[in-house]
Structures are given as structure tokens and as C-alpha cells.
């Protein structure tokens, strides 16, 4: 699904109002009613004190609507106006009057002296700022945010945690009201997907408020959050008359003495995801290990303990290179010769990325749409440092454009970047932060390309399945006991789950890595 930036969201709001004959008041009513329904469903009329803090814009307008429903349903609520400006919006004023009409006058907060008593057991609803935030909150609004943060009550943020910008970095961490849960409208926000914002919310989910989908498409958004229904469309069903040659030949190159496991895991993964044939090319010392661990694979060997010659005979469809390879000089020299001669599609990971970082001129020899799978440290060696996560995305996009590469930045929300788009993954959890997890991912992506998936789709699909194994496994195992081999074990479940229509959750309930 698309991720819209703040301008696109405002435009989509307006286009929906113009095209669907729905007034902005009704759109707000509909959106805020969904928030009330969510809360009502959780609370089931329990007598918990609820504090609704409204700004003076349309996020505040949402708060006034939610407050009205809470009053009408008998909840123990107080509604406040955080009076940081006199510039009220029309929608705010209409809903302010509607609240007065039912005899409920909000309490105005003009300064620190007006801050109410809020207890840890209470619920805070945050509708101070939403998508309209243009600068960091200051003055008593900032003080209020700090005061509420110090109480640590359950805080439900509407659309965005107040003080969090949709598309730019937070400058002062003291200006964001930390949310326990965020109900956000229509599209995930880029800010929710970046590690630098992990302190500002625990979980979030998207409420579909019916914005004009044709208009949204016409904006050609470049940011995506890939969900199950989209992944299913990438899947290539197998035809009856196919044979193993139909599904390509993946070659995994890597390994060094002490790191034969990495190339073994990648080889197993390429096989398990369905590559018709799989070969491994590794130092001689790893030969028996690989043959025993993966009897289905063919093996060719190089020098004794680390790769040097890269003179394999395998006629591969695609090569995955790097796991456990090491960066000693003879390997670096052999790698350079290999890259300069190679014409096959590549997936490049781990030490192979480090060797590219040491010798950046080799980037010019990579075939178009080569997939690189760096974790943040490897990325930094490749593209240099960044000021914040937003800049990291932009620098990676520039790098991807310059060299025609597909970049897979691994992390809590792995993001796949090509010259035009960014695809954030929606699966996975901290169980995946385990040795060998990346080697398995390399094998999966390589195995998918072998089967004819376009490299960009192989990266998106592979990353999704890799994450899904951990999501499925976690109900039976635990974060700690999940290993890279567990990814392989649960890969069939992850694939089968694509055809299970029960859920298509657009939410994120994971804890932070
Ligand atoms: N019809 C619509 O447009 C809909 C809008 N909705 C809500 O509307 C929100 C956006 O509303 P607005 O655009 O009115 O903006 P906000 O309510 O997010 O912000 C209020 C106003 O505060 C001002 N402001 C920004 N930063 C400030 C700061 N640091 N200190 C003081 N003032 C500051 C801005 O001028 C902004 O207009 C969304 O987040 C969503 O909650 C929803 O009701 C859905 C429908
Ligand atoms: K908010």
C-alpha cells in the first residue's frame, strides 16, 4: 500500500471532499468515529478516566468528535483545548459548537497553570497536532507534552503522536508526546518506519477513512508498505509441465575457514525457496560440510581455506555472493577479477559488500539491477554517513540511481530501494536478529531470481517471506530460541500463509529491535 507524504495526504483529503460529495465535516466525523469505535471496543464502558487533549486545527477537530462520542456513551471524560493559537479551523469550530450543544464545555489550557491532574491509570487521547505540524511545539505546549510524558499513562495518538513530523526528522526529542498506540488515517506514515523514531510510539495501525483511491494512485507515490495482498500478486504459480530446469540454477559463492556455515545456510535457503538447481562454490575445507548438510546441492571448490581463484564451471542463472567469504587479500583480488568478468545477475551480501566498499570502482562493473543486502554498518561503509534516517533513505536512493542497483537495507522495517521507489517490509520481528539470518535472506533472494522473479520483486518477496517466518514461528517458539535454521523451517508456512485470507493486517505490533 502507498505511503503518502504530508502534502499528498492533504491533497487526497481535498480531492476526496471535491470528488465524493462528502463535506470535510462529514469526513472528519467518519474518521474520528472510527477512532471512538476502536477505543469503545477496547474499553467496553469501563469507568476509566479519559483526558482528550485537542489542538486548534483539524487534529483537534478529531479530538472534539471523539470527546462527543465518549460523553454520549457515558464515559468519564474531560476534554481540553490546548490553546496554542487563535487560528481555529472551520472543522474545529463546528465540532467545538457541537460539543457545547450537548452541554459539554471543554477546559481551555492557556498556560502551565492550567495543566490538569492526570494519573498513570488514566487514558490520554492525543489530538494536539497531526499532519499539519510545521515546526516543533514550543512554550506551554512543549511543557504539556513533557508533563504528559512524565506520567506515562496509556496514550492513544490520533493520526500521529503530537510533535512527530510525517516526513522529516524530529529536532528536539522533548517535543514529541509519546504514544502507546497510534490510530493513523488512510496510509502508514514514513515516520513510523524509521528506527530514529522508535521512542515515540509502541504500536500503530491504519484506519481506512475512504480517501479517493484513484486520486491517490494518480499521485504516483514512490513510497510503499508491502502487505500480503500485494505480495500474493508477485507469486509465480508453477505450471504442470514445468521441470527443474524451468526454475533456474542458483550458485552461492562464499565461505572461509570458520565461516562455512554462512554459505551452507544460503545454499539451503536457495534450495528451500524453490530454485531448480543449486550449486555452492566455496573453499576446499568446506566441501564435506556442505555435501553432508545439503545433499541436494552440487559443490565446486576453490583454494584450501579461503576463496582465491573464482574459477567455477557451474552454468548458473544467478549468483549470490558474499556469505562468510572473508576479506583477505587473495580473496579481494579474486573477487575483483570475478566482478570485472561476470555478466550474470548478482545478489551481493556481507563480505562481498565490504570488498565493494574497499574498491568502489568495482561498482561500475555490476550488472544492472544487482541486489545488495547491507545492514546499516555495511551501508555506511558503502555510501558514507548520514545525519538522520530520512537522509539515509535519500542517500541510498541516489546511490541506487547512480549505479542502477537494488538496495535492501536490513533492519526492523527492511526497506528495498531502487531508482524510483522504496518498499518498506511489513513482516518480521526481533527474533530475526540472530546469526546467519542475513545469509538465509541472500539465499532466498538468489533462489527467487533463479526462478525468474525480477530482481526487485525477488527482493520484496524474499524479504517479506523471511520476516513472515519469524511472525509465524513466534507463537510456537520464542524470540530467543529462533535461529537462522528456524527461518528455513518456517519458510513453507510463510509461503502457504499467502493463500490464507484470514488476515491482511495493516498494523504494526512488533517491539523494537
Ligand atoms: N478533512 C480533512 O482534511 C481531515 C483531516 N483530518 C485531521 O486533520 C489533521 C490535519 O489537520 P490540520 O492540517 O488542521 O493540522 P493539525 O491539526 O495537525 O495542526 C494544527 C495547526 O497548527 C499549526 N501548527 C503547526 N505546527 C505548530 C506548532 N509547532 N506550534 C503551533 N502551531 C503549529 C498549523 O498551522 C496547523 O494548521 C490530520 O492529522 C487529521 O487528524 C481527519 O479529520 C481526516 C479528515
Ligand atoms: K495527534
Automatic annotation (TrEMBL):
<feature type="domain" description="YjeF C-terminal">
    <location>
        <begin position="227"/>
        <end position="498"/>
    </location>
</feature>
<dbReference type="InterPro" id="IPR029056">
    <property type="entry name" value="Ribokinase-like"/>
</dbReference>
<dbReference type="GO" id="GO:0052856">
    <property type="term" value="F:NAD(P)HX epimerase activity"/>
</dbReference>
<keyword id="KW-0456">Lyase</keyword>
<keyword id="KW-0067">ATP-binding</keyword>
<comment type="similarity">
    <text>In the C-terminal section; belongs to the NnrD/CARKD family.</text>
</comment>
<feature type="binding site">
    <location>
        <begin position="130"/>
        <end position="136"/>
    </location>
    <ligand>
        <name>(6S)-NADPHX</name>
    </ligand>
</feature>
<feature type="binding site">
    <location>
        <position position="438"/>
    </location>
    <ligand>
        <name>AMP</name>
    </ligand>
</feature>
<dbReference type="InterPro" id="IPR030677">
    <property type="entry name" value="Nnr"/>
</dbReference>
<feature type="binding site">
    <location>
        <position position="262"/>
    </location>
    <ligand>
        <name>(6S)-NADPHX</name>
    </ligand>
</feature>
<dbReference type="InterPro" id="IPR017953">
    <property type="entry name" value="Carbohydrate_kinase_pred_CS"/>
</dbReference>
<feature type="binding site">
    <location>
        <position position="59"/>
    </location>
    <ligand>
        <name>K(+)</name>
    </ligand>
</feature>
<feature type="binding site">
    <location>
        <begin position="410"/>
        <end position="414"/>
    </location>
    <ligand>
        <name>AMP</name>
    </ligand>
</feature>
<comment type="function">
    <text>Catalyzes the dehydration of the S-form of NAD(P)HX at the expense of ADP, which is converted to AMP. Together with NAD(P)HX epimerase, which catalyzes the epimerization of the S- and R-forms, the enzyme allows the repair of both epimers of NAD(P)HX, a damaged form of NAD(P)H that is a result of enzymatic or heat-dependent hydration.</text>
</comment>
<keyword id="KW-0547">Nucleotide-binding</keyword>
<dbReference type="Pfam" id="PF01256">
    <property type="entry name" value="Carb_kinase"/>
</dbReference>
<dbReference type="GO" id="GO:0110051">
    <property type="term" value="P:metabolite repair"/>
</dbReference>
<keyword id="KW-0479">Metal-binding</keyword>
<feature type="binding site">
    <location>
        <position position="162"/>
    </location>
    <ligand>
        <name>K(+)</name>
    </ligand>
</feature>
<dbReference type="InterPro" id="IPR036652">
    <property type="entry name" value="YjeF_N_dom_sf"/>
</dbReference>
<keyword id="KW-0630">Potassium</keyword>
<feature type="binding site">
    <location>
        <position position="324"/>
    </location>
    <ligand>
        <name>(6S)-NADPHX</name>
    </ligand>
</feature>
<comment type="function">
    <text>Catalyzes the epimerization of the S- and R-forms of NAD(P)HX, a damaged form of NAD(P)H that is a result of enzymatic or heat-dependent hydration. This is a prerequisite for the S-specific NAD(P)H-hydrate dehydratase to allow the repair of both epimers of NAD(P)HX.</text>
</comment>
<feature type="binding site">
    <location>
        <position position="375"/>
    </location>
    <ligand>
        <name>(6S)-NADPHX</name>
    </ligand>
</feature>
<dbReference type="GO" id="GO:0046872">
    <property type="term" value="F:metal ion binding"/>
</dbReference>
<comment type="similarity">
    <text>Belongs to the NnrE/AIBP family.</text>
</comment>
<keyword id="KW-0413">Isomerase</keyword>
<feature type="domain" description="YjeF N-terminal">
    <location>
        <begin position="9"/>
        <end position="217"/>
    </location>
</feature>
<feature type="binding site">
    <location>
        <position position="439"/>
    </location>
    <ligand>
        <name>(6S)-NADPHX</name>
    </ligand>
</feature>
<dbReference type="GO" id="GO:0046496">
    <property type="term" value="P:nicotinamide nucleotide metabolic process"/>
</dbReference>
<comment type="subunit">
    <text>Homotetramer.</text>
</comment>
<feature type="binding site">
    <location>
        <position position="159"/>
    </location>
    <ligand>
        <name>(6S)-NADPHX</name>
    </ligand>
</feature>
<keyword id="KW-0520">NAD</keyword>
<keyword id="KW-0521">NADP</keyword>
<feature type="binding site">
    <location>
        <position position="126"/>
    </location>
    <ligand>
        <name>K(+)</name>
    </ligand>
</feature>
<dbReference type="GO" id="GO:0005524">
    <property type="term" value="F:ATP binding"/>
</dbReference>
<dbReference type="Pfam" id="PF03853">
    <property type="entry name" value="YjeF_N"/>
</dbReference>
<dbReference type="GO" id="GO:0052855">
    <property type="term" value="F:ADP-dependent NAD(P)H-hydrate dehydratase activity"/>
</dbReference>
<dbReference type="InterPro" id="IPR000631">
    <property type="entry name" value="CARKD"/>
</dbReference>
<dbReference type="InterPro" id="IPR004443">
    <property type="entry name" value="YjeF_N_dom"/>
</dbReference>
<protein>
    <recommendedName>
        <fullName>Bifunctional NAD(P)H-hydrate repair enzyme</fullName>
        <ecNumber>4.2.1.136</ecNumber>
        <ecNumber>5.1.99.6</ecNumber>
    </recommendedName>
</protein>
<feature type="binding site">
    <location>
        <begin position="58"/>
        <end position="62"/>
    </location>
    <ligand>
        <name>(6S)-NADPHX</name>
    </ligand>
</feature>
Amino acid at each position: 500500500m502507498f505511503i503518502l507524504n504530508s502534502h499528498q495526504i492533504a491533497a487526497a483529503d481535498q480531492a476526496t471532499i471535491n470528488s465524493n460529495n462528502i463535506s470535510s465535516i462529514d469526513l472528519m466525523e467518519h474518521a474520528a468515529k472510527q477512532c471512538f469505535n476502536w477505543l469503545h471496543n477496547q474499553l467496553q464502558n469501563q469507568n476509566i478516566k479519559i483526558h482528550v487533549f485537542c489542538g486548534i486545527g483539524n487534529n483537534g477537530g478529531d479530538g472534539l468528535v471523539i470527546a462527543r462520542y465518549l460523553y454520549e456513551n457515558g464515559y468519564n471524560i474531560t476534554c481540553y483545548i490546548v490553546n496554542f493559537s487563535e487560528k481555529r479551523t472551520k472543522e474545529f469550530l463546528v465540532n467545538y459548537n457541537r460539543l457545547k450543544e450537548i452541554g459539554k464545555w471543554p477546559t481551555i489550557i492557556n498556560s502551565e497553570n492550567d495543566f490538569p491532574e492526570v494519573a498513570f491509570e488514566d487514558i490520554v487521547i492525543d489530538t494536539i497536532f497531526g499532519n499539519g505540524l510545521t515546526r516543533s511545539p514550543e512554550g506551554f505546549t512543549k511543557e504539556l507534552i513533557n508533563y504528559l510524558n512524565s506520567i506515562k499513562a496509556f496514550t492513544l495518538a490520533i493520526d500521529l503522536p503530537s510533535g512527530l513530523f510525517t516526513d522529516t526528522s524530529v529536532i528536539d526529542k522533548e517535543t514529541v508526546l509519546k504514544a502507546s498506540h497510534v490510530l493513523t488515517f488512510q496510509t502508514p506514515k514514513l515516520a513510523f518506519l524509521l528506527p530514529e523514531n522508535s521512542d515515540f510510539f509502541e504500536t500503530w495501525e491504519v484506519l481506512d477513512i475512504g480517501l479517493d483511491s484513484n486520486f491517490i494512485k494518480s499521485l504516483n507515490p514512490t513510497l510503499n508498505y508491502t502487505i500480503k495482498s500485494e505480495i500474493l500478486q508477485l507469486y509465480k504459480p508453477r505450471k504442470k509441465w514445468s521441470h527443474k530446469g524451468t526454475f533456474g540454477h542458483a550458485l552461492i559463492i562464499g565461505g572461509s575457514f570458520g565461516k562455512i556455515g554462512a554459505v551452507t545456510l544460503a545454499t539451503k535457503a536457495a534450495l528451500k525457496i524453490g530454485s531448480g538447481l543449486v550449486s555452492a562454490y566455496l573453499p576446499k575445507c568446506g566441501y564435506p560440510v556442505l555435501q553432508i548438510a545439503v545433499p541436494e546441492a552440487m559443490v565446486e571448490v576453490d583454494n584450501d581455506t579461503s576463496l582465491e581463484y573464482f574459477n567455477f564451471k557451474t552454468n548458473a542463472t544467478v549468483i549470490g555472493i558474499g556469505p562468510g567469504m572473508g576479506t583477505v587479500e587473495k580473496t579481494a583480488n579474486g573477487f575483483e577479477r570475478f566482478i570485472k568478468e561476470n555478466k550474470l545477475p548478482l545478489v551481493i551480501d556481507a563480505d562481498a559488500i565490504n570488498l565493494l566498499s574497499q574498491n568502489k570502482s568495482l561498482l561500475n562493473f555490476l550488472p544492472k539491477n544487482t541486489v545488495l543486502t547491507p545492514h546499516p554498518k555495511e551501508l555506511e561503509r558503502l555510501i558514507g554517513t548520514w545525519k538522520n534516517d530520512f537522509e539515509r533513505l535519500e542517500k541510498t536512493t541516489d546511490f541506487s540511481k547512480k549505479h542502477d542497483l537494488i538496495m535492501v537495507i536490513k533492519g526492523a522495517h527492511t526497506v528495498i530501494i531502487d531508482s524510483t521507489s522504496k518498499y518498506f517490509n511489513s513482516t518480521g520481528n526481533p527474533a530475526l536478529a540472530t546469526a546467519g539470518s542475513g545469509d538465509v535472506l541472500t539465499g532466498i533472494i538468489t533462489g527467487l531470481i533463479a526462478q525468474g522473479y525480477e530482481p526487485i520483486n525477488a527482493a520484496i518477496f524474499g524479504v517479506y517471506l523471511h520476516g513472515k517466518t519469524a511472525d509465524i514461528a513466534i507463537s510456537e517458539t520464542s524470540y530467543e530460541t529462533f535461529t537462522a535454521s528456524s527461518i528455513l523451517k518456517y519458510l513453507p508456512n510463510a509461503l502457504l500463509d499467502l493463500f490464507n485470507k484470514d488476515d491482511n493486517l495493516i498494523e504494526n505490533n512488533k517491539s523494537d529491535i
